[in-house]
């Protein structure tokens, strides 16, 4: 009677059992989502590389596996993630990196390189911002200047971009905004007038321009509104009571 052949090992290298034997399934370890088998470097919620665990830092034979990336690489990743959402100013990217603990030296190094190759351009950003926000939201130069300042755009750069938006364009946009709002406006002409002027004021239009735009739009709406509009003197009303609140 022949004896059983000795198996050469256990697990995946075991000799297949003979017909009739109960098959032995190899045991598998639990796979870690962020371990080396996942095919990606482990990162935290903000995109920062995490320190590898002892299990992922080296293989059983002692060879090195995934290692944390350097600070410059982390800084570039932060910038690219920010830029994937929308264009950013230099100041916005610097702030994003600083909040993640990137040193000032590395921040300047990365941003200088991005400036050099044209990935960031505050002048182009300002021009695009002014054009988009004026066309899409009807914002006037005063409101746009405030938004550019909040995003860290230099004053001279912002002024150059805002200079491309002239007074005639502002007046035309203000009139179009009022006409669109008047289609659904309800109430006495005086109440409607105040709401329309307040709407333009919140978008950054100066009082004189806002009052004239509303006066012209009301005059074309109805006989009653035109009669009320005839009594409005934009220049006098805009300067007679500087403490009045037309935005209510």
UniProtKB/TrEMBL annotation:
Q: Which residues form a coiled coil?
A: none
Q: Name one GO cellular component term.
A: cytoplasm
What are the protein's UniProt keywords?
A: Cytoplasm
Q: Which residues form the RecX second three-helical domain?
A: 121-162
InterPro entries listed in its UniProt record: RecX_HTH_1st (IPR053926), RecX_HTH_2nd (IPR053924), RecX_HTH_3rd (IPR053925), Regulatory_RecX (IPR003783), WH-like_DNA-bd_sf (IPR036388)
Which parts of the sequence belong to the RecX first three-helical domain? Answer: 75-113
Residue span(s) of domain RecX third three-helical: 170-213
The Polar residues compositionally biased stretches are: 237-248
**Similarity comment text for this entry:** Belongs to the RecX family.
Low complexity biased stretches: 55-64
Database matches in Pfam families: RecX_HTH1 (PF21982), RecX_HTH2 (PF02631), RecX_HTH3 (PF21981)
Region annotation Disordered: where it falls in the sequence: 1-74, 228-248
Q: Which organism is it from?
A: Micromonospora pallida
Q: What is this protein's name? A: Regulatory protein RecX
This protein's superkingdom? Answer: Bacteria
> What does this chain do?
Modulates RecA activity.
Where does the record place it?
A: Cytoplasm
One Gene Ontology term of the biological-process aspect is: regulation of DNA repair
């Amino acid at each position: 009677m022949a004896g059983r052949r000795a198996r050469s090992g256990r697990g995946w290298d075991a000799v297949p059992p003979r017909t009739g034997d109960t098959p032995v399934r190899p045991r598998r370890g639990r796979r870690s989502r962020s371990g080396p088998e996942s095919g990606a470097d482990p990162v935290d919620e903000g995109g920062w590389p995490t320190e590898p665990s002892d299990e992922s830092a080296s293989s059983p034979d002692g060879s090195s596996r995934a290692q944390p990336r350097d600070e410059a690489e982390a800084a570039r990743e932060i910038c690219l993630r920010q830029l994937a959402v929308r264009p950013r100013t230099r100041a916005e990217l610097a702030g994003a990196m600083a909040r993640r603990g990137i040193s000032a030296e590395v921040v300047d190094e990365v941003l200088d390189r991005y400036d050099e190759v044209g990935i960031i351009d505050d002048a182009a950003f300002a021009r695009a911002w002014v054009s988009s926000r004026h066309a899409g939201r009807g914002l006037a130069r005063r409101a746009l200047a405030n938004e550019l300042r909040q995003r860290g755009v230099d004053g001279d750069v912002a002024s150059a971009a805002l200079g491309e938006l002239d007074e005639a364009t502002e007046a035309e946009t203000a009139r179009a905004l009022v006409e669109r709002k008047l289609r659904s406006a309800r109430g006495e002409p005086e109440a409607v007038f105040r709401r329309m002027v307040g709407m333009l004021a919140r978008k950054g239009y100066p009082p004189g321009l806002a009052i004239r735009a509303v006066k012209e739009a009301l005059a074309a709406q109805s006989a009653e509104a035109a009669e009320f509009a005839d009594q409005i003197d934009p220049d006098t009303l805009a300067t007679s009571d500087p403490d009045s609140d037309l935005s209510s």
